[in-house]
Structure formats: C-alpha cells, structure tokens
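User: I'm writing a short report section on ligand binding and want a predicted complex to refer to. Could you take this sequence and SIB and write out the structure as tokens? A short remark afterwards would be nice.
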Amino acid sequence: MNTLRIAGGQVLRPDATVEDADVLVDRDEGTILDIGADLDADADETLDAEGCLVTPGLVNAHCHVAMTLLRGYADDKPLDAWLREDIWPAEAALTPEDVRAGAELGLVEMIKSGTTAFADMYFHVPEIAAAVDEAGLRARLGHGVVTLGKDDADARADIDESLDVAREFDGAADGRIRTAAMPHSLTTVAEEYLREFVADAHAEGIPVHYHANETTDEVDPIVDERGERPLSYAKELGMLTGDDFLAHGVHVDDAEIDLLAEAGTGVVHCPASNMKLASGMAPVQKLLDAGVTVGLGTDGAASNNDLDMFDEMRDAAMLGKLAADDASAVAAPDVVRMATAGSAAAVDLPGGALEVGGAADLAVVDLDAPHLAPANDLVSHLAYAARGSDVRHTVCDGRVLMRDREVLTLEEDAAMARAREAIASLRERV
Ligand SMILES: N[C@@H](CCSC[C@H]1O[C@@H](n2cnc3c(=O)[nH]cnc32)[C@H](O)[C@@H]1O)C(=O)O
Ligand SMILES: [Zn+2]
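Assistant: Sure. The structure tokens for the complex follow:
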C-alpha cells in the first residue's frame, strides 16, 4: 500500500472539534486510513503539519472557473447590465484555448487557497475537464445553456451540447469529474425548452444545476407572468429534486424555503457576488433553520473577484448576520460546515469531512502568522481570520497538489503568462 502521512498538526473533525492528530492516507484508494496520534512513521511520503490546522479541502459549490480571465474586466454594475453589456460580448469571443488558460489559472488559485472540489457552469467544457484532470481536483462540470435571443436550432444545439457533455465527462479523470445539465437560469432559458431539457436529463440520472432567485429583476417577471414564485415554477418543471442544486437563492420567500427543504435541493450561497452586484442578502440562517442543504461558492472571478473560499466564509458570516439582523446568525461553525460538508452535499461530490474511510481531500493551514495569533478558537480563525494564502499543503484524492506552497500539478508561472496573453488578445478582438 502506498501511504501519505500528514504529521504533527491539529485536525478539524466533522463535529467542529479540533484534536492533535496525524492523518494517514491510502494514496492508491484516495481515502483516509486513520486519524490519531503517532501514526505510521514509515509512510511513503510525509507532509509536515506542525503548527498547522488540517481541515477538509474546501468545496467551491458554484463557480465559472475560466472567468478568472475576466477578473477586473467589468465591475460596479448590476447583474443584468454587467452580463449583457460586458461579460456576454467578451465571452462570445472566447476560444477553447482561452477557456483552458482561464481554467488553469483558476485551478492554480483554488489549489493555493485549499479548495479541492468545485462545481462549474461554463462552455468549452472539454477544455475545463482536461485542466481539472491535470490539476488533480474534483469537480462537477456542466455546459451552461441560454436560449434567450437564440433561434430554435441554436437553442436546441445548446441543450444537446449540455446533455452530451454531461454524458461524456461523467466519471472522467479517474472518477474525479462528475457532471450536471446546466440551464443558466429560469429566465434565460424559455419554458418550452426547460421542461424537456430537465426531463431528458433526469431520465438519464443527470442532476440539474442553475442560477435562481439571484436578483429581484429575475423574480418579478416570473411572478408577473405566471402568478407564482420562481421556485414553485421550478418545482413544476421538475427541477427541484434532491439531486439538483441551485446557485444564489437570494430572494426566496418562506414558502420557497419550505419547498427547498422538502425537496432536498441544495442552495449554493455566493455572498461576495451577491454583495458586489448588489443582488441582495440571502436569508441564510432561515435556510439553515429550515433544514435546507446550504453550500458556499465564489461564483466567477469577474463578480468576486477571487476564488478564495476563506474570504467567502468570512463574507457569508458577515452578510448572514446583517441579513438576519442578528449577530448570532450564521456563526463560525456554520460557515465552516457550509464551505465543506454543506457544499459537498449540495453538489454531491466526495469530501467535506475528515473521517476514516472518507475521501483524502484536505488542506493544511499554517497557523504561524500574526493574524492567526493567539489560537483562541481555530474554527473562529478559519471563518473570520484565515486567508487562502495561509494554506501550506493541499491534498485531493490522496494526491499532494501543493506541497509547502508549491503547486505540483500545474505550472503557476506558465498559467499566469498564458492568461495574460489570452486576455491581451481578447481585448484586441472585442
Ligand atoms: N452557453 C451560454 C453560456 C452559459 S455559461 C454560464 C454563464 O453564467 C454567467 N454568469 C456568471 N456569474 C453569473 C451570475 O452571478 N448570475 C448569472 N450568470 C452568471 C457567465 O458569465 C456565463 O455566461 C451562452 O451561450 O451564453
Ligand atoms: Zn454564477
């Protein structure tokens, strides 16, 4: 057996307690063999975790990873104008090579900040899948579909591509890649298409992921035209099952929260994007109280503007308190759970907890920094004080992706250089 030992650290357990322990990993199986004191000193490889906190790898449950290319490309606008005036015209000019460059840059950023799994909606998905395969992370990938403004043939081709991608890449990268069908949202895909698309996906056991209730501009037209709330419409369309998950859920009323809880549909909270686009404040504590599965995501780097899940935890805690008008709302253990087990459950990928027999997906956070001293409460530090740059080692599926802050699976400098070239050429074209 080929083993990896993460030695001498403190380990965050699923019940949010912290214990002094080593973690022993079966690298062939990609699973955790043991957690405890003084484990196998003869392991094939050892990662030093002295003075560090070993946490589950963070799970970024909603992203558009290739959008790192558009980081800082257009800011300070509301969602609709931002997409139509800036982002969609730029995306129309993106080549498969551009998407590959953006994805690799984003994956480097994720590995460096302790993220080991993510869910992603974009296009040119084969390029993203190839980058994920190389990078060593886990992902649930899909091709995003918009039918608005397209003729029937183009709309159907977009849907077919989404289903084809979901079929072809499920189980790729040694099983680390899973897929979903991804209608962009309830307003950008017309009902006639949505109904059939969702039914076709579910008939093949493919889950559905989409944006919903992100802004009032997206909710009001559905209420006006249909006389019902968006998530009641989604339920009618069959896209509110326990396998499906939606991004945002900012403007949801109590009845919609009940629908989500009953169905077991995951909600991915994206606080930074919601603040930056002034979309609104999701009622996260209410969702948690109702028993909804809540995950955490950065959304794309163009609306964040980074992929750092530590930032996201802090934002989720801060915004959750403001939304609830209650400082005890969305507490530190809640956001840590959202970024780990909650996200993993929402997108249905392994990981999110350090337990024997579970996936060996973890991040080792260096606590030896002024902003993390003294160590009064390490869960509090994770939620409020730690940064992505505090991550020292990252492991996914038993493989070391970053050791002592050096990314091993991708070339960091080359990824930055390719992204710079890609955006320079894109700016000339758009
Ligand atoms: N096939 C579609 C692309 C959809 S991919 C997913 C899309 O979601 C967009 N996006 C990024 N962030 C958000 C958000 O917060 N809300 C809605 N859409 C977003 C992103 O720019 C990308 O165009 C087409 O032909 O346009
Ligand atoms: Zn999004």
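A remark for your report: The radius of gyration is 21 Å. The chain has a mean pLDDT of 98.
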